[in-house]
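Re: that chain you flagged

S.,

Sorry for the slow reply, it's been a week of failed gels. I finally had a moment to sit down with the sequence you sent. For the record, here it is as I used it:
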Amino acid sequence: MKSYLIVGALLLVIIALLATNKKLVETVKNIFKIEDLRKRLIYTCLLILVYRLGCYVVIPGIDPNLLGEGSALANQMDSNGLLGLLNVFSGGAFANAAIFALGVMPYITASIIIQLLGMMVPAVQKMMKEGESGRRKMNQWTRLLTIGVLALQGPAYVANLYHQMPEAFVYGNAFIFTVYATIILIAGTMFVVWLGEKITDKGIGNGVSLIIMIGIVARLPHALLAELSARLNTSTGSLIMIIIELVLLFLVFLATIAVVQAVRKVPVQYAKRIIGNKQYGGVRQYIPLKMNAANVMPIIFAQALMFIPMLFANVAPKFAGAFADMTGVWYNLTLAVLVILFTFFYTAIIINPQQMADDMKRNNGFIPGVKPGKSTVTYIDNILTRITLPGSIFLAIVSILPALAMKFLGVQQAFAYFYGGTSLLIMVGVVLDTLQQIESHLLNRHYDGLMKTGRIQGRR
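Prediction finished late last night. Pasting the structure tokens below so you have them in one place:
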């Protein structure tokens, strides 16, 4: 009860601070004055509500009374880092054995595979450059590959669920149950993907990313309550430690936003041309090179590789055990090194200095003081290397922050996920993108933006 009172008091303080901000109140009024923006926000909220309701609809044939806090499945979420992370991404549907249990992560996996194929396979790369028709084909391939991924993950999820809680299966683990449960999971994930696409088309923000972010944020009150309960119900806990944790979390968010928005502007001068009585070119523009161009992808790749040692648990138990502990030295050291390597690798894939130099030369542009051609390629490549190094180190620190929070601050695992890793980067990136779209609607209608000074920069 004490935990709920503290959370309620914090919410009241936040609401009071927001209500006293005249600029914010005026901005909210302007948002609802724009009919198109108002409809988009309401439409987005309704679809998100449908998604959240589906996270509590249990698969038919499983007893919902045996799920929830204290169940074997919930305990497995707390002890297993990967399953706990999947539960966070699904907004708790994974632990609820809901029809949306697998969330949109299979779709994200399929999208990453298609994206990598587009970078390495010439035929796929050519299709990606075919415009709208190519985009439709790629989306269709992604959906088909998503169904293939789900056909593998669905039975594995049902088997793990039966291993943890066989008593929850009303009709037992018959083959027919596994088949129709897998079909339900496939339908649930594809329905969530459809919701995300509808939000992108008729709502506000990137739908799939927004659904992931909502799932992560939905676990925040539960994680905060668990942390408050752990702090206040133990002899070593205190309210001071909770305040310190919240202040540190706020500082981590500030640092992440600063690095996500950090851009190195490379000046480009375009030659002046006079055609008839009109002048073309002769202006200076900038190429924005982001410090964190790879975004969250290096952490996702690195975390996927970190679970490979678990496959050798029977052959080499000591080796697997060294990488099983999220707070262990070997686990975090290896994870940090992999994140740094993947950051350079993924940045080199998505940013091509040779193509940038060719585009500038084709449009009569050049970097002041740098010769066109090979010198321009070398110049851009050197800048990329210099800004990617601090960006990769920052990503490595972010990836191990949850382990540091658990190890040195004693933070509960569920709450530690919000201190770093993919959860933090996804929340920051999606919120910035959504706010950027809202601000563009306001500025197009001659209203002030969301900020008094400056403009919100999204990941793009």
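What I noticed first: The chain is about 65% helix and 5% strand.

Talk soon,
D.
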